[in-house]
Amino acid sequence: MDTLCFIIDGKNHQVSVAGSPAFSYGKNEVLSNATNDITFSQDWYERGYHVARFLENHEFENLVDGLTRSIGTIIRTSLGIELNQFDLSRYHQVVNTDEDHFKVVSRTRDLFSNDFNFPIMEVFRRFEQFLGFHLTDVNPKDGSKMHIIVRINRPFSTDFNPPHKDIYESVDNDGCVARFINFWIPICGVTQNSSLPIAPSSHLVPEDKILRTFEGGVVEGKTYRVRMIQSWAGSNRLTRAKVGYGEALIFSSHLIHGLAVNEEQDQTRVALEFRLFKQA
Asked: Which residues pair with 150 in a beta bridge?
């Protein structure tokens, strides 16, 4: 099977998976539970996600400004392009080849709090207040710091991951479930034509009902480490998250998400993504 079809908000999206590893089902178990999923105690656990406001308008503007300057610096140093009044949502007009885009995102995928001209750690503290427990960006397994990803998705590009769960890599490689929570923060270009698709309550589907790869995936000729999911309980339907500026999509690391096709005609979609662990 070289092509798969997914439905996002009622619209069919076909993707090539030629060269992808084989798809198969897992065991008869639900990996999301009180032990493995730190969102289990939240009142939104059954749907697997929640949208929370965490920044005032002026704070959000400061975040966008700081991030714009950070990405502008990467463009200047990586591509030698001088910028004047750079607008993040018009990124695709400045970085207009896949080769140059890769040079930029190879750096924006692995950023840490001190790479931002904004107090990111203060944002973490606000999430702690909302969730009711302390968070850390240090992986308790090996002591490494989790990076922050600036996800840059150009119009009608393949700048997206396939449908996946973030826990699968640790499950398949280490035989255990990494206990973290996901945060997705829209920065610009986020609309109902470009927002992150999710599958509500998919974290409750047993693994023997989820058809997926166990060794990464290939979509439109691009190779991914994340395990690609073809269907869950016979479904291939996703819905774009409704998240406004100054808000964050907070979701279980067990929730199926991805295939964030940007169907805006002339807007680059930029979002922050990061994972945090529950502090012991």
From this structure: 272
Q: What CA–CA distance (Å, rounded) separates 199 from 128?
A: 25
Instruction: Report the alpha-carbon distance of residue 269 to residue 54 in Å, rounded.
Output: 20
Domain ranges of the chain: 3-63+119-278
- Check: CB of residue 180 under 8 Å from CB of residue 277: yes
CB of 21 within 8 A of CB of 215? yes
Distance between CA atoms of residues 31 and 206, nearest Å: 8
CA distance 158 to 142: 32
* Short-list 124, 184, 134, CA closest to 160: 184
Query: Looking at this protein, which amino acid is placed at residue 70?
Result: S
Instruction: Give the burial class of 107: count Cβ atoms within 10 A of its Cβ; 0-12 exposed, 13-18 middle, 19 or more buried.
Output: middle
**Model confidence band, residue 258 (pLDDT cutoffs 50, 70, 90):** very high
Distance, CA of 171 to CA of 173 (rounded, Å): 6
Which is nearest to 197 in space by CA: 230, 152, 265, 243? 243
How much is the average pLDDT of 177-182? 94
Those residues whose C-beta lies under 8 Å from the C-beta of residue 41, and which sit 6 or more positions away, are: 34, 132
CATH assignment, 3-63+119-278: 2.60.120
- pTM for this one? 0.95
Q: Are 166 and 277 in contact (CB under 8 A)?
A: no
Task: Provide φ and ψ at 224, rounded to 5°.
Answer: -125, 145
